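so my prof wants the structure for this chain in the tokens format not the other one, which i didnt know existed until like an hour ago. anyway here's the sequence
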Amino acid sequence: MSTNLLFATVDLPPINKQKAIAEIEPLLGTDAVFWDAYRETNMIPLVTKTGKLGVESISNRHQGEFMWAEHTPPTIKEYFDSIVFPWIGMRSRLMLLITKPGAKNTVHIDSKIHEIGTKKHKFRIVLQGRTDTLFFRTQTGDVHAPLVDSAFLMDGSWVHGMDNEDDKIKLTLALGSPWEGFDEYGPEVKILMDRANYLMPTDLAQYIEKPGTATY
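here's what i got, hopefully its the right format
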């Protein structure tokens, strides 16, 4: 059942990671990058409702359709238009997360407090770096995600964080709101972490998303 999903792999045709990375590198020193203080990470907006850069690019409150940013690398655009968006059945916000070597993403929740425990699935592809630097906070300690190479789904309503212990920048494609996942998945999705096996921390107020931020 999708309601049990904490972390799952998604067996879709793979993106050409090396080509995507090569196309991303020229953007890393430009004004396409902005700092997200809530999660303590740099981002580049790729699909938004505003077509703008910076923090405003995160918001879904604007009218209109989701659109690609002009700076989006062609490999990423082609892959999501041909593979990912048809699979999820819609176009949704897409951000590139950039975490420097040795940096941490603050422990947080990518949903509102009333959404905790509901279906809030997030789609991710780590282009450069390791998936097992992602961890979920539980009542008995932090539990790291498995090391996988494929795309994956995670429960954005669970408390989580990330420590980039690699000597390279971690580059993650992060797709989220307004897509929330499916009630049921096909055989391409394999649940590796079942949230029924863990207990959420009790002091959730310190992790909750602040007003004005977004559930990427």
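also thought this was worth mentioning. The domain at 2-207 is CATH 2.60.120.330 (Jelly Rolls).
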